[in-house]
Amino acid sequence: MYIGIMLTKKDNQNIETLVRTVVKDEVKHLPTKSHFDERMDKLTKEIQDAREELAAHSMSHERLDEKDEELETRVGVVEKKLRIPSSGSS
């Protein structure tokens, strides 16, 4: 239902000014695009570095596990040749 009230040009300007003020106030805490991009670049580098460190750490564990298996096999051979009861550390 139309009640016959129309906004004037001045009313529209006041509304626009009010909306701009409210929006500026609401977004003032947000970072600028360049600051956001800098932070994302830093975060991306940290994530990449962490992934590389994790991969290297994992590879180190794999080498240790392989060495452990090799030593277990060698100990088993020595125990067998010397007829020593198996240590059963596997």
Q: What does this protein look like?
A:
By secondary structure, the chain is an all-alpha fold. It has a domain at 32-81. Helix content is 76%, strand content 0%. The protein has helices spanning 9-27, 33-81. The chain is rod-shaped, with a radius of gyration of 35 Å. It starts with 8 loop residues before the first helix and ends in a 9-residue tail after the last helix. The relative contact order is 0.04.
Topology, element by element:
Layout: H1 9-27, H2 33-81
Most strands sheet = none
Order of helices and strands: HH
Query: What's the rounded overall pLDDT mean?
Result: 92
Tell me the radius of gyration. 35 Å
Low-confidence stretches: none
Q: By helix and strand content, what is the structural category?
A: mainly alpha
* Tally of helical runs: 2
> Looking at the structure, what is the overall shape?
rod-shaped
- From the N-terminal CA to the C-terminal CA, the straight-line distance is 85 Å
E-strand count: 0
- Percent range for helical residues? over 70%
Sheet-strand content, in percent, reads: under 5%
